[in-house]
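Priority: medium. Attachment 1 of 2:
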């Protein structure tokens, strides 16, 4: 795998715009800024949580800051509602990155495009993100996973950039991993996952469009942001290390997809490697699952931070 040197940033801020949970009572810390507690906290326009994920990534270097949106949540109204409450203006974003094509990371785009006006917003994604997908459960029950609507989005302000490999964004300050190589023996994919290819439903366990965002913070190390982590949290971190040539991992934030019986056996080896990596901060979110969250909190108590919609991580 070719090395892609990543410029150092002075600071990165990751704002949780959408996630599965919100808790107004969580405390601040030096690097974790929760929603301000005020007298009208229970009466002002509330943020909402949903089964989805979206985050604002802002990198700062030499007193210049630029931002991108990573994922867009599930509902048409959820993303733009929370952006309004958090005073995030769509027209100030430089680009959007999709971690993969599942609806709980993409459908919020349908609400956001209404705010873009005539501006064309670049959207970076893997080509497989456009595949029709579904999950077929052992009892035969199916759950459809509709992809982004290419036709509608391209007409209404989105300019697609399709890349299978790694990419630089924001002047080389952000790296998108592209398709993640599978290197562990325990992160073996999603066996119930199917994709429609050539008019035929085929097994699609590896979900090759799954990718992550990586930033290199000066004197600290890598910050790795995942959406669902279908490629495996450890596979993803290792790809970030190999691409950048930087071994120190400062923070890992996002979904690790360790929820449910199919994935619970992966929790112990995943946590074991995370302990070896010893990040200063780890924020399991979205689809990580409560058993994995508790295991991470127990085994990495100094690094663990509970996510909540509206939380800003300053790294």
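Attachment 2 of 2:
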């Amino acid at each position: 795998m070719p090395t892609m040197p990543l410029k150092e940033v002075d600071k990165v801020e990751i704002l949780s715009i959408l996630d599965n949970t919100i808790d107004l009572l969580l405390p601040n810390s030096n690097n974790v800024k929760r929603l301000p507690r005020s007298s009208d906290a229970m009466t002002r326009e509330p943020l909402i949580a949903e089964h989805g994920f979206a985050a604002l990534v802002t990198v700062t270097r030499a007193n210049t800051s630029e931002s991108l949106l990573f994922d867009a949540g599930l509902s048409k109204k959820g993303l733009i509602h929370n952006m309004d409450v958090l005073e995030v203006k769509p027209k100030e974003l430089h680009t959007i990155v999709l971690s993969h094509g599942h609806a709980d990371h993409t459908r919020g785009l349908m609400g956001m495009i209404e705010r873009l006006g005539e501006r064309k917003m670049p959207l970076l994604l893997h080509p497989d993100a456009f595949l029709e997908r579904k999950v077929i459960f052992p009892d035969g029950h199916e759950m459809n996973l509709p992809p982004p609507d290419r036709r509608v989005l391209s007409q209404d302000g989105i300019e697609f950039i399709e890349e299978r490999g790694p990419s630089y964004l924001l002047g080389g300050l952000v790296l998108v991993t592209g398709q993640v190589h599978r290197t562990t023996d325990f992160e073996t994919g999603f066996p119930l996952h199917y994709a429609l290819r050539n008019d035929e439903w085929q097994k699609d366990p590896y979900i090759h469009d799954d990718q992550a965002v990586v930033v290199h913070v000066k004197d600290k190390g890598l910050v790795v942001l995942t959406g669902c982590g279908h490629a495996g949290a450890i596979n993803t971190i290792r790809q970030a290390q190999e691409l950048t040539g930087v071994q120190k991992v400062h923070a890992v934030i996002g979904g690790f997809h360790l929820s449910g019986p199919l994935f619970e056996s992966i929790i112990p080896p995943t946590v074991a490697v995370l302990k070896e990596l010893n990040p200063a901060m780890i924020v399991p979110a979205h689809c990580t699952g409560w058993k994995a969250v508790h295991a991470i909190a127990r085994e990495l108590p100094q690094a663990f931070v509970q996510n909540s919609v509206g939380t800003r991580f300053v790294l």
